[in-house]
Design a protein that fits this description.
This protein is an alpha+beta fold and about 350 residues long. The chain contains ten helices and seven strands. Mean pLDDT is about 80; it is low at about 300-305.
Length: about 350
């Protein structure tokens, strides 16, 4: 019933008019040719005008089923487009007897499935986004209210503990906000600009220095060739987000006194960077989803993150024309491999 109310495409009347015009022109041209080259007299040539009516009727009858078929197939597509524009992303066009329109219908059906998937991802994104923001905000609000209510009656050590929790949750909220904005930015980007020539190995060393405090807390040993140089032409700011996120992950999932190795080299016009650790590792299912937005394979208090970092990494590497992969074993650590164009 819903489809019957949709506006249908009118018949292609212009096809009939053009066809009849061609018939008239053809008959008149043939009469002229017959008079000039075939020896027809003027009366015989003019008598051909009477052929216009029957030939026009024959043309109309012959073209009608073709026009009707095209009109019906176009109406199927128009109904589908109207349904999708109204928000019905589950609409699928029946490809039976679609003829030359079959490929177009299949492409349309694939598009609606993709739109449906995108909408579901957006809904999940919104729900997860709200949940991730709600948790630290609730904690900050709860701890601050408690401190305010207790006033001077609270034990100094307990006060310090709650203030530390407020500080930790506020930093988590700040990281989540910044990562969400960055993810939104890189997802909207189509072309990487502001490229420059620099040493990628030196950038990795600077990132290690930035994260040295976190590594010292867990007494993690870092291994990287001090003489390594990797000249690259790329956006330095964007790639720094890649290394910071990958190194943060390695630190987070590496146990105390663990090891992290950063290595690099070039092969077949590619620059290859590997960041490996001997941490807790991942199973195959986790590896299949590790680059999905808000996916977290470990939600314990000590390792809980936002699930955005690796999605940012994947998008930036893709924007830069590179590839990223992961190899991991449960209890055996993980190794992230990033391939970037060297020239």
């Amino acid at each position: 019933m819903k489809n019957n109310k949709r506006k249908r495409i009118k018949g292609f009347g212009w096809i009939y008019l053009v066809g009849i015009a061609v018939v008239i022109g053809g008959v008149m041209a043939y009469g002229l040719v017959a008079q000039l080259f075939l020896g027809f007299d003027e009366d015989s040539a003019l008598s051909m005008v009477w052929m216009i009516l029957p030939m026009s009727i024959i043309y109309a009858l012959a073209v009608r089923p073709v026009v009707s078929g095209i009109t019906e197939k176009m109406n199927r597509l128009a109904e589908g487009m109207e349904a999708v524009s109204g928000g019905d992303f589950e609409y699928q066009i029946n490809t039976k007897k679609s003829g030359e329109f079959e490929h177009l219908y299949r492409q349309f059906n694939a598009m609606t499935l993709e739109l449906k998937k995108t909408r579901e991802e957006m809904e999940a994104f919104t729900n997860e986004f709200a949940h991730e923001f709600k948790t630290p905000i609730t904690a900050i609000n709860g701890f601050s209210n408690y401190l305010q209510e207790m006033g001077d009656e609270i034990d100094p050590k307990e006060r310090e503990e709650y203030l530390g929790m407020i500080s930790s949750e506020s930093k988590r909220l700040l990281r989540l906000s910044m990562n969400t904005l960055l993810l939104s930015k890189v997802e909207a980007m189509q072309v990487v600009s502001d490229k420059e020539q620099y040493d990628l190995a030196e950038q990795l060393r600077r990132c290690l220095i930035l994260l040295s405090k976190e590594m010292e807390k867990k007494r993690i040993e870092i291994e990287m060739d001090e003489d390594l140089t990797l000249p690259i032409y790329a956006n330095e700011e964007l790639l720094q987000h890649v290394w910071i996120n990958l190194l943060n992950n390695a630190i987070k999932f590496t146990k105390e006194k663990g090891h992290i190795t950063v290595s690099g080299g070039s092969k077949d016009k590619w620059i290859i960077i590997r960041i490996s650790d001997d941490g807790i590792g991942m199973d195959e299912e986790t590896q299949a989803h590790i680059f999905d937005k808000y996916y977290q394979h470990d939600t314990t208090d000590t390792t809980k993150g936002s699930g955005i970092g690796l999605a940012i990494v994947k998008r930036i590497v893709t924007l830069c024309g590179g590839e990223i992969s992961v190899a991991s074993w449960v209890g055996g650590g993980s190794c992230f491999t990033v391939k970037l164009p060297g020239k």
